[in-house]
Specification:
The complex is a heterotrimer of chains A (314), B (141) and C (223). Chain A has 314 residues and is α/β, with parallel strands linked by helices. Chain A has one domain (10-228, 265-304): TIM Barrel. Chain A contains twelve helices and eight strands. Chain A has an eight-stranded parallel barrel with strand order 1-2-3-4-5-6-7-8, surrounded by six helices. The two termini of chain A are 20 Å apart. The mean pLDDT of chain A is 96. Chain B is globular and about 35 Å long. Chain B has a single domain (9-140), classed as Rossmann fold. In chain B, 46% of the residues are buried. Chain B has a four-stranded parallel β-sheet, with helices on both faces. Chain B is an alpha/beta fold and 141 residues long. Chain C is an alpha/beta fold and 223 residues long. Chain C folds into two domains: 2-119, Rossmann fold (3-Layer(aba) Sandwich); 134-211, no CATH class. Classes of the chains: A alpha/beta (314), B alpha/beta (141), C alpha/beta (223). The A-C interface holds A 85-86, 90, 112-115, 117-118, 126, 128-134, 137, 149, 167-169, 172-174, 176-177, 180-181, 183-184, 187-188, 196, 243-244 and C 154-173, 178, 181, 184-185, 188, 193, 196-197, 199, 201-203, 205.
């Protein structure tokens, strides 16, 4: 599978080369302490192709994804800056896209954003001027047409060559509609897609079959989201309290079936089995590893799942 | 005049149950306090918070609404509606510093003469224990 | 209609603290229909305020009057005979338009809002109201099966449902239905997915409040 290269993104190179890609995730600190970012980078460097820098995820205030992303890139990591529509209108969005590219950001992940109601500032006013699909269109328009939403021209040397990412969630409802929503993202011009954490493999297989049949995987790279379960508490929490994540009983039972001190190992083992299946699954171009506040386990999981060494390009 | 506090109580009684129960209590010659003044209403669904508020403004120490047993309302759910209004008013009274116990909802049937007498006694005792309405106390002073 | 609800009694009490003569003014428009500020609610609020004052031993007069509407100058004019009686405070039980119109017409009066104006909506059942319109000034509900995502989607998404939609409810609360779930389901059931497939364009918010306070002038009606 080789496709036209549109940007200088390393992640794009890996995906376009047909190699099985791996991305990671880094949550910026709830402070201005850059050392926390630098510390987390150590676990990710060399182990994944690119790292998502979350943008005030769950609407909890953290260091900005642009700033944390730059700190991470200074350490040699390539980042995938997340951008939500919750906190910026189209003016700020376009401005941030130009600024981010000028500072060396090559990948942007477009999101609507978690509603502020369950964050740490529920009294905030939200924006939602445009939605995540419009955000894809906006970046594409700036990059390929050299235009702002206003129609204002961007000179060729000033166009942001961003590799455009988006999220997809086969586990949200209505199930039958999910692939059609992804089709809209593909039609909007997304380059790569990363899924929500996968536990329900049957549902994911059904989804990917549809995506392949609709030809979507020919037009964008689909990456499967993996978050190993640390323990039974996390399994139950994910199952019962996170909207849009489904955890089948057999997953919960498998974690519950081993002694407490072995649950993390079992979770990692399960994740590796999933990754092995994704490597073979039609239409899946890579995995997105989301080790939430468990970044130090990234070296372990990439080793266990034979994801290293990562490809290099001269 | 005795020094003992004799409260003024207004009871909004449904014609199908408690009002008839009052008749029965009378014909059975049951003894109960004379503090309660009865207002006949066609159904407790007719009860409105403003009726109770006007009673309190006019110096009532307590107000209760007596309707049919739940499930037996002649107008299906008038007594359920009344119950919610009573709860709403109790809460409003509490917010302005008037004891919520001064308003209550009771349910009985037409054949429950003794229960009628019991309710009158019970509510009168409750109000006596609370003392005069805080509204009235200041008015007198 | 405009849906409103009465402010907590403590807040209203704080408006009139120390005042001797208070007027509660209702409105026979929307707030009568949504049981927030009609004649009956005026009676109840006035009564509660009188009881509270009596309880404290304060000599306070609370009068009541309900206007046909508080959003039209001719009805606001009617209040002049009350205003002449010199009230220390006037509590408006209309939506926020009412106290603003009263304040403009009677600039020397001490006017307070007794209601919180909540939203434009309808009654799902007696006593239950839900928001249905955000007055964006450019209605597009026909594109969404007769449902408004601007108002009824927590994120006003034009191309939902987002990844937080689960079991027909929104990620913000199990009490909030996901309007995009209903829209998508309706289109799928009617076999109209292709009609639904095009990306809905970015919304022009300039006709909404975002374009500044709005005004309509209909020349054929202006005298």
């Amino acid at each position: 599978m080789t496709r036209e290269i549109k940007t200088e993104s390393r992640l794009e190179k890996v995906l376009a080369s047909g190699k099985f890609a791996a991305t990671g995730e880094l949550g910026p600190p709830r402070s201005a302490d850059k050392h926390e970012v630098i510390e987390k980078v150590k676990h990710l460097l060399g182990n994944v192709d690119s790292v998502n820098i979350t943008d005030n995820q769950t609407a909890v205030v953290r260091m900005s994804s642009l700033a944390a992303g730059l700190l991470a890139q200074q350490q040699g990591l390539e980042v995938n800056m997340q951008m939500v529509c919750r906190d910026r209108n189209r003016i700020a969005i376009e401005s941030d896209i130009m600024g981010a590219y000028a500072l060396g950001i090559k990948n942007l992940l477009t999101l609507s954003g978690d509603h502020q109601k369950f964050g740490d500032h529920p009294q905030a006013k939200n924006v939602f001027d445009i939605d995540s699909i419009h955000l894809i269109q906006t970046i594409k328009m700036m990059r390929d047409d050299g235009k702002l939403l206003s129609g204002q021209e961007i000179p060729p040397e000033g166009r942001p060559k961003i590799f455009i990412g988006a999220a997809f969630n086969p586990f949200a409802d209505p199930e039958d509609y999910r692939v059609h929503r992804v089709a809209k993202k593909v039609a909007a011009g997304v380059d790569f897609l990363q899924s929500q954490c996968i536990y329900d493999m049957d549902r994911f297989r059904r989804f990917m079959k549809k995506a392949v049949d609709m030809g979507l995987t020919e037009k964008a790279y689909f990456m499967a989201g993996v978050t190993p379960l640390k323990n039974i508490g996390m399994a139950k929490y994910m199952k019962n309290f996170v909207p849009g994540i489904t955890v089948p009983d057999e997953c919960v039972n498998r974690i519950k079936g081993v002694p407490k001190d072995k649950q993390a190992d079992e979770g990692l083992k399960m994740a590796c089995e999933q990754i092995e299946e994704f490597k073979q699954m039609e239409g899946v171009a890579g995995v997105h590893l989301m080790l939430i506040e468990w970044e130090h386990m990234v070296p372990t999981i990439v080793k266990m799942a034979n994801l290293i060494p990562r490809p290099t390009f001269s | 005049m005795s020094d003992e506090f004799e409260p003024r109580i207004i009871a909004f009684c449904c014609q199908y149950c408690s009002y008839s129960a009052a008749d029965m209590a009378g014909s059975m010659r049951l003894q109960y306090p004379t503090n309660v003044e009865i207002v006949l209403i066609p159904c407790t669904g007719r009860f409105d918070v403003i009726l109770a508020l006007k009673a309190f403004e006019s110096g009532a120490d307590g107000v209760y609404v007596a309707g049919c047993l739940e499930g037996n309302c002649h107008f299906v759910d008038g007594n359920i509606r009344a119950k919610k209004r009573v709860a709403y008013l109790a809460n409003e009274l509490k917010k302005i510093g008037i004891e919520p116990e001064r308003i209550a909802m009771y349910n009985l049937s037409a054949s429950m003469g003794p229960r009628f007498a019991e309710i009158v006694t019970e509510f009168t005792d409750n109000i006596k224990a609370l003392g005069p309405s805080p509204v009235k106390k200041k008015l007198a002073a | 209609m405009i849906i409103a609800e009465r402010k907590p009694i403590d807040e209203i009490k704080s408006f009139i603290e120390g005042q001797k003569k208070v007027l509660v003014v209702g409105c026979r428009g929307c707030v009568t229909v949504c049981n927030a500020g009609g004649t009956k609610e005026v009676e109840i609020l006035a009564s509660l305020l009188r009881l509270d004052a009596q309880k404290e031993g304060h000599d306070v007069t609370v009068d009541e009057h309900t206007l046909e509407r508080q959003c039209d100058p001719e009805y606001i004019d009617e209040l002049v005979e009350f205003v002449d009686k010199k009230y220390d405070a006037i509590l408006s039980m209309a939506c926020s338009v009412g106290p603003q119109f009263l304040s403009r017409r009677y600039p020397k009066e001490n006017i307070f809002p007794a209601l919180n104006t909540n939203f434009i909506g309808g009654a799902l059942a007696h006593g239950i109201w839900a928001e249905h319109c955000q007055a964006c000034g450019n209605c597009i509900i026909h594109k969404f099966g007769g449902m408004c995502p601007v108002t009824r989607c927590s994120k006003s998404l034009m191309n939902g449902p987002c990844g937080g939609s689960a079991g027909g409810v929104c990620e913000i609360s199990k009490e909030v239905e996901c309007i995009w779930h209903l829209i998508a389901t309706k289109f799928m059931e009617e076999g109209k997915l292709e009609q639904f497939a095009p990306i809905q364009p970015i919304k022009d918010w300039s006709s909404s409040r975002d374009g500044g306070p709005r005004k309509i002038v209909r020349e054929e009606l202006v005298k």
